[in-house]
Specification:
Blueprint lengths: L5 H5 L2 E3 L3 E7 L3 E8 L2 E8 L5 H15 E3 L1 E7 L2 H8 L5 E6 L5 H4 L24 E4 L2 E2 L5 E3 L3 H13 L4 E5 L8 H10 L6 E3 H4 L5 H29 L5 E7 L5 E3 H6 L7 H16 L4 E7 L4 E7 L4 E2 L2 E3 L2 E3 L3 E2 L2 E3 L5 E5 L5 E7 L17 H7 L17 H14 L6 H23 L11 E5 L3 H11 L4 E4 L6 H7 L3 E13 L5 H21 L7 E10 L6 E4 L4 H13 L8 E12 L26 E2 L14 E4 L9 E2 L2 E4 L4 E4 L4 E4 L5 E4 L2
Parallel strand pairs: 1-5, 2-6, 6-13, 7-8, 7-11, 11-12, 15-24, 24-25, 31-33
Antiparallel strand pairs: 2-3, 3-4, 9-10, 13-14, 15-16, 16-21, 17-20, 18-19, 22-23, 25-36, 26-29, 27-28, 27-29, 30-31, 32-35, 33-34, 35-36
Helix pairs in contact: 3-8, 5-6, 10-15, 11-13, 13-14
Length: 687
Amino acid sequence: MVTRTRMAARGRTTQRAPLVVAIDTGGTFTDCVWSERGELRTLKVFSTPGDASQAILTGLRTIAENLQTDELLLLHGTTVGTNALLERKGARVALVTTVGFEDAIEIGRQARPKLYDFFFDRTPPLVESALRFGVDERTDAQGKLLCTPAESDLEELRAQVAACGAEAVAVCFLFSFANAHHEQLAAQALAPLGLPLSLSHQILPEFREYERMSTVCMNAYLQPLMARYLGNLRTQTATLAQRSRIFVMQSSGGITALATAVREPVRTVLSGPAGGVIGAAAAARRSGFDRIIAFDMGGTSTDVSLIDRVPAPSNTAEVAGLPVGVPMLDIHTVGAGGGSIARFDAAGALRVGPESAGADPGPICYGQGTEPTVTDANLLLGRLHPTFFLGGNFALDLKRTRSVTQQWLLAQRSNLTPEQFAAGVIRVVNATMEAAIRVVSIERGYDPREYALVAFGGAGPMHACELAAALNIPRVIVPAMPGALSAYGILVSDVVKDFSRTVLLRCQQASPLRRLESEWKKLEAAAIAAFRAEAWPGKPQLVRSADVRYRGQGFELNVPFGKNLLQDFHAEHQRRYGYSHPEREVEVVTVRVRSTLPGASSSGRNDSMTASPASSASPKRSGERHSERPRHPAGAPPWTVFHRTSLVPGKRYRGPGIITEYSATTVASAEELFYLDTAGNLILQTS
């Protein structure tokens, strides 16, 4: 189903400037956002899991039918890499490493995710043992070449890789971040095979061989798949305009050129969620808030991230059970979404998720599902209006939901009514999401009372006010287009390139800035050269930082560059862990440079967000009362239903109320005031 925008009703117009369209591929819908005459437009099409590019092309063709343009710029947030890792559908990878370290990728670390579970199965590595090859070479930690591989050994290596049927090759030698000469020799020997090569000194020139090896193997695992997908997408979009270009969203919160995404696909594995974080920060900034907690609740999972003025990437993460060392926005994910399935465990306790009904069969209220979900619980409690869903284009089956849930409860030998059961489901799923918010805030030394909760995704605004009240967060912000905020974030993202190198420099009381200056200058020169190679105009903004730790510690804190780098580290350590040791020796482990340029769409930053996604159904009348759902469990009067377009900007409204719109539904309790501000955001005051 394709929803019609108001633009379509006006007829075909001409776009003289390049048409910039941001597209985020989700599990159920593919969201398109673009700018027209200073106003943002959105379009939703059903996703095509078998080939994600088909939904993208459907959306682009629909937009192109109504808006002529000679140049098309596609900014794409993709789940291809994430899905390939989760489903283990990547390439057959050969790993080339220092002899004796072939099994480091499987040995990993001693840390156990479940310490006392004797039956826990570790996530298997991406490279099986038969495809791991050792080379007799060695470089020490200072970069001195101790043993150079013989030419005959490299020729034998080439023959072994050619015979194993590998589709891509990952090369990861010990201490190659200090001296890459041996990896370059291996790359030259393997080049005649014509296979995609991932070299660790290019992908992640940092220490910790296991994490570096895991990252470079993941990159090789995704390379052939992403090359085919993006190549096919580029070919097909070329038919829509005289000139077309594709840019891809990275996990670090910035876009990059298609060629870079093909070469380093590991940087795109959290592409969609990263767009949501950037979109939440941009939307909140329009309303004057720069300290926020982004809360994205979709159909399968919930992503939360704390933003203290600027979205900051983390340099360590885990995806599909495997460590990744490239910069990623710090996003914590839990298996709680609108489609999360509720069940009773063996002890009779109510559980919700992480299993999801997905899009097929979906929740009971969609007409085919048979297991109760969070969406069904919201419908039973009257928090979802059965006829206002998706702007009135899709009716939820309340009668079937109550009947099937009742039968399911009888089969479970439960004496609960459907409404009592639904109230329990909401409490359980809220507890899961509340714990996730605590992880990114309280557990890291941040007070959630000092932040605003930005709720988006199809289900986020329904649960946000209860979570905010539980954590004493004073206000909730629901952006103007909550169901397409990830696509909006991609639209307004900068072009970002991150560079790093491990230096392991010890410092005692004195500033290390002089000795680090040459390293930073090398990284900055590499950043400028990378932008020039991709023909980006302008001079990039360069931001320095360093990973610092006390000598003897196993983990570091990233500290922005400043004249008082060591003092800033002591202060950050005090804030994060509650103590510091200014008298102890400090190590600067890794230096980093983050380089940015304004993105392909600078207009999206200033366009009005007051236009909500249009649908073929006319907005429902403000103030309409529910007549086909139970009263609130606490005995409060029925919800008052508002359509978001009918709210008068600046006028204060009081709950209990339900604010409906095309892509989401917002629930406000009796204690809350809410209003639409001049930026088009819905503000709910919880205290």
